[in-house]
């Protein structure tokens, strides 16, 4: 007879946390986190493209331990990893953003507070060195106040997400009639509560809220205004075309995140890792280039570094880990995987990883 009280097997890779989380999360929350937009083609491409990147290891490097700590966006970090901004983290655990941010601080990696965080940004910034992610809202006064609040709370950078003029069509959420439970709110946004809890035909409640609250027609002029308003390091998240990367540098961005939002926005968009090399060629000397969408292991981080990224953002695996109160474990596993991958590739540090040769499977 199996022992029903036996603890779950420990996670040996980040994907294992998804299975553990599946045991504790309601299906509609699982699907909100896991899902992509449309036919989920881009969601799948993110993985297959990363799997297709090969790295040519170096040998006899005389290295006993790889140094994974490095500089990133002006600060020292424990590894070249950033916790991606993700909305409504109390959906998966009552400790939500506070738990994940604390684990990020312990691992020495920046935590990015979402505009749609379910704890107020000030409370999160108090527990961890954080960056703030800005969604451009229709009400400019609210945008200004969010920037002021992020500065006052000591956030170390501002990350503007530029790939959400509207929310991608996430069919799983529509089918599930996904809406926020009453105790999960967009804590930074006054008045958002009722909207994010009620769907309209064909749109989940979260998509309906985005449609009413977000400004779809944000432009480079708005970014110029933003650049003149804040001295914080500015990153633009959601860039896939080198021409936009060049423009980002022209408006004074300090970094860009090559991202397709984890396959949640334009379905059919290029896998972000496939967009990375041309963007590094175009602006890699002028600003920091980070990558997200599909990163699931230390090997993936090594692939990104070898392709010229200065670091990566990681999303869903940390929400799965949060669901089972294992954020620290997940980040430690990733650090160990990266350190092992670097050692196996003969890299003493992240600068050496950037000199590796890459290919295609
Ligand atoms: C996100 N993402 C996101 N991005 C952003 O700029 N602001 C946000 O509030 C959110 N919210 C959010 C919620 C959930 C549940 C997910 C899964 C994702 C996108 C996120 O920052 C990141 O780009 C992707 O998650 C990266 O892909 P992976 O690592 O999840 O594959």
From TrEMBL:
<dbReference type="InterPro" id="IPR037396">
    <property type="entry name" value="FMN_HAD"/>
</dbReference>
<keyword id="KW-0560">Oxidoreductase</keyword>
<dbReference type="InterPro" id="IPR013785">
    <property type="entry name" value="Aldolase_TIM"/>
</dbReference>
<keyword id="KW-0285">Flavoprotein</keyword>
<protein>
    <submittedName>
        <fullName>Alpha-hydroxy acid oxidase</fullName>
    </submittedName>
</protein>
<dbReference type="Pfam" id="PF01070">
    <property type="entry name" value="FMN_dh"/>
</dbReference>
<dbReference type="InterPro" id="IPR000262">
    <property type="entry name" value="FMN-dep_DH"/>
</dbReference>
<keyword id="KW-0288">FMN</keyword>
<dbReference type="InterPro" id="IPR012133">
    <property type="entry name" value="Alpha-hydoxy_acid_DH_FMN"/>
</dbReference>
<feature type="domain" description="FMN hydroxy acid dehydrogenase">
    <location>
        <begin position="6"/>
        <end position="361"/>
    </location>
</feature>
<dbReference type="InterPro" id="IPR008259">
    <property type="entry name" value="FMN_hydac_DH_AS"/>
</dbReference>
<comment type="similarity">
    <text>Belongs to the FMN-dependent alpha-hydroxy acid dehydrogenase family.</text>
</comment>
């Amino acid at each position: 007879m199996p022992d029903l009280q036996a603890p779950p097997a420990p996670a040996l890779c980040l994907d294992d946390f998804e299975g553990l989380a599946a045991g504790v999360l309601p299906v509609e929350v699982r699907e909100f986190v896991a899902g992509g937009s449309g036919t989920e083609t881009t969601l799948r491409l993110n993985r297959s493209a990363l799997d297709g990147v090969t790295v040519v290891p170096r040998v006899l490097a005389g290295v006993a331990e790889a140094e994974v700590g490095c500089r990133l966006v002006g600060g020292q970090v424990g590894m070249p990893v950033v916790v991606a901004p993700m909305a409504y983290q109390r959906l998966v655990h009552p400790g939500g953003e506070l738990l994940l941010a604390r684990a990020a601080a312990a691992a020495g990696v920046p935590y990015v507070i979402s505009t749609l965080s379910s704890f107020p940004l000030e409370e999160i910034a108090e527990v961890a060195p954080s960056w703030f992610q800005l969604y451009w809202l229709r009400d400019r006064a609210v945008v200004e106040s969010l920037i002021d609040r992020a500065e006052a709370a000591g956030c170390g950078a501002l990350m503007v997400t530029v790939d959400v003029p509207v929310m991608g069509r996430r069919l799983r959420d529509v089918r599930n009639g996904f809406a926020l439970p009453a105790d999960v709110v967009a804590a930074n946004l006054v008045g958002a509560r009722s909207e994010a809890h009620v769907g309209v035909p064909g749109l989940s409640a979260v998509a309906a809220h985005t449609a009413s609250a977000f400004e779809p027609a944000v432009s480079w002029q708005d970014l110029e205004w933003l650049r003149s308003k804040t001295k914080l390091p500015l990153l633009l998240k959601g860039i896939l075309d080198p021409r936009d990367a060049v423009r980002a540098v022209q408006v004074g961005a300090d970094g860009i995140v090559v991202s397709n939002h984890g396959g949640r926005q334009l379905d059919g968009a290029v896998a972000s890792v496939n967009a990375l090399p041309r963007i590094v060629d175009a602006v890699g000397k002028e600003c920091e280039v980070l990558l997200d969408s599909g990163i699931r292991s230390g090997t993936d981080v090594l692939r990104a570094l070898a392709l010229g990224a200065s670091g990566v953002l990681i999303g869903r695996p940390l929400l799965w880990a949060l669901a089972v109160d294992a954020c620290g474990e997940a980040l430690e596993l990733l650090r160990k995987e990266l350190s092992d991958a670097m050692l196996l590739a003969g890299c003493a540090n992240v600068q050496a990883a950037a000199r590796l040769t890459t290919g295609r499977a």
